[in-house]
Each structure stands twice: as structure tokens, then as C-alpha cells.
Amino acid sequence: MNRDILIFFFVLLFLSVTVQASSPFVTSEEGAVGYYYQVTKAENTYTWLIEGKDNIQTVIETEENEDRLQSFRTGVENANSHLFTLWITGVFFIIVSTLTLYLFNKRSHVVKESLLVIIAAFCIPIYILFTASIELSQALNDAEYYFQSLIK
Hints:
By secondary structure, the chain is of the alpha+beta class. Helix content is about 70%, strand content about 20%. It has helices at about 1-20, 65-105, 110-115, 115-150; strands spanning about 25-30, 35-40, 45-50, 55-60.
């Protein structure tokens, strides 16, 4: 009886490993501001689901389009990274602004004494917001360029 159960267990284990090895699986995916990619691997073939500006396309990776697909991936990942930077810096800017207004209303002498620190606390996030928005725009332009080159 125990031998039959053991054999049954190994057959089930073998079948599940065989099914998982042959079925496609997602290797990576990411999206940012209207652009998205999902890479699925089935056996030795990579299939990309790419999306951009109201258009979805499925592309099978070949030697001819591999560089463009990787560049599209890089553009989407960079856009996502810069978008995250914008959010974090924006939240920091709002917190600093709120704290400054609070201190100005309650203790205006504290604001006057630490004016240089407050100016720096405003200028640094403004600079980061400005540069991150330019870099986000560039990353989105890159993603759009490579998306258009892939769907043609």
C-alpha cells in the first residue's frame, strides 16, 4: 500500500514538473505612463506584449528586433523610475511647505532665523522635480520611438 502511494506521489510530481517546464511563464513586466511590456518565455521563444498610446502589439523576439525590444524595456523602466522620483520629491516638497507655513504662523522668528535652510529645502526638491520631469519626458520619448519602430 505504501509503495503504491509513493509511486503515485512521484508520478504526480513528475507530471507537475513536466507541465511547468513546458508551459509559458512571464519573465518580466513593467509599465509607466501609458507604456507597458510583458515578456513571456515558452520553450526557447520570448514573446513580448507591448503597449503604448492606445495600441497593443504582440512581438516575437528575434535577432533583428532584440535591441529595439531591450531599448523599449529600458525606456519604460527609466520612465517608471523617474515617475517614482517625481512622486517622492513632490511629497517631500508638500511636507516641507506645510511645515514652513505652520512654523511661520506659530513661530515666525524660527522661520526668519533659519531662512537659508528653508530656502535650500525648497530649492533642492524644485531642482530634482525639474530634472526628473525632463528625464521622464526623455524616457517617454524613447519608449514611444522604440514602440513605433517595433509595430511597423
